Model the fold of this input.
Amino acid sequence: MEVYVNPRVNDQVYLKNPMEFDLGKKIISNTVHMMHDIGFEQFTFKKLGKEIGSTEASIYRYFPNKQRLLVYLSAWYWEFLHYLIKLKTKEIEDPKKKLKVAIKTLVYAPSESNNNCFLEMQKLQDIVIEQFYKIIRTKRVTIQNESGYFESFKRLCSTLAGIFKEIDPNFNYPMTMATAVIEMSINNHFCSSNLPTLTEIKCGKDQKQQIEQMMTYFCERLFKKCDC
Amino acid sequence: MEVYVNPRVNDQVYLKNPMEFDLGKKIISNTVHMMHDIGFEQFTFKKLGKEIGSTEASIYRYFPNKQRLLVYLSAWYWEFLHYLIKLKTKEIEDPKKKLKVAIKTLVYAPSESNNNCFLEMQKLQDIVIEQFYKIIRTKRVTIQNESGYFESFKRLCSTLAGIFKEIDPNFNYPMTMATAVIEMSINNHFCSSNLPTLTEIKCGKDQKQQIEQMMTYFCERLFKKCDC
DNA sequence: TTGACTATGATAGTAATACTATCTTATATT
DNA sequence: AATATAAGATAGTATTACTATCATAGTCAA
Done:
């Protein structure tokens, strides 16, 4: 399946749509590289301006601050995953198979998408893993939520929750489970590389397979019917 | 059970042990109030100095920056929970009962501990819920981990993982499960108040009971034996 | 071709932040 | 009495996170 994915981001997230201008595109693609290299805290509009041969002032015309730029990138990331999961599960009837495909997509899609997407998804994933909680767990989250900053993430969670509900209509906490599954995938990526005592996943080349297996293991145990 | 809990924090976290000095105590207890009110970003040593009738320079003698002060507070928080869970499960034989007590402690202890602890645990919990990922998901986490900044958190996870392993010795991912359970309790506290679409927990006076019930539901489904 | 509009660049300036350094004073200890 | 330590007072610096203004180049419409 070869598709070029170009996620649309809610227009309340930016001041001027970066995807409609050359400078805008430069801003977002170079932000992915730079934030990946130096981290969110060290990243500034001044440094980015220098890197892309532009100025601080010009970047401020697209995003009011670096937090919002990060919100934009996260929205892109979740929208990308959501789009792919929707696409890949569309034709599947069996919800258990849907779930397997969704898990596979969550785990493998970013590293396999360097040619079918404007941004480098693997780097973007690393950024989102490290930084997403910085933008979601804040005092301002309620206001931001009302502004639709997290729509893409919420839609992805709803889609997953829908699959859980299909598998077991009596399951009480599909939304909680959806956020937990996403969190689990993110957290184990991070911990296996950085805090190995906190996970059973070992860092290495089959890391993603281990994570897929683990997520499947949890889902199967949670949804197994006592039909022996 | 009435105990005064006074967690000890790894001495690599601070420059000078705040608990040994009046000013130090003032610093940590007032940080809890101030950070709770204005959030981590807005919080500065200058503002705190003014609040407690001291100066920026004096606070820098205890902590090299506000991140480390947050590390200190988080360590205290996790150490506090870990201590209580150890204490309350010590005499219990049945691991399933142990788990129930551990979950109860995670959910209820902070709000019930305003008289048996130097810090205001409910406020501290709100801070940890909002900010813990800021200190754990960073580029520097590996170095910090080696410095023992997260020992308390890791010990708590190990204790929980031990209980899971007792319940089901064949369970493959006790550590992952432990971090997921803690995360679940934190995340649902946060979401029910701030991002209600992402959880089934409703904000209100029985919020904690709902969370306890939900965590129990997940654990029971994961560990139910097919013994019908 | 003129005029208007827009995207960007260039430059300057400001308030706040995150420190660092030094000097003084008060108090406790030996 | 001498010493050590805690902490207050003050000053200073580099960087950050903006805001404001003005100039310029290209595009499109009358």
Observations:
- The domain at 73-132+140-223 of chain B is CATH 1.10.357 (Tetracycline Repressor; domain 2).
- The first helix of chain B runs from residue 22 to 42.
- Chain B has ten helices and no strands.
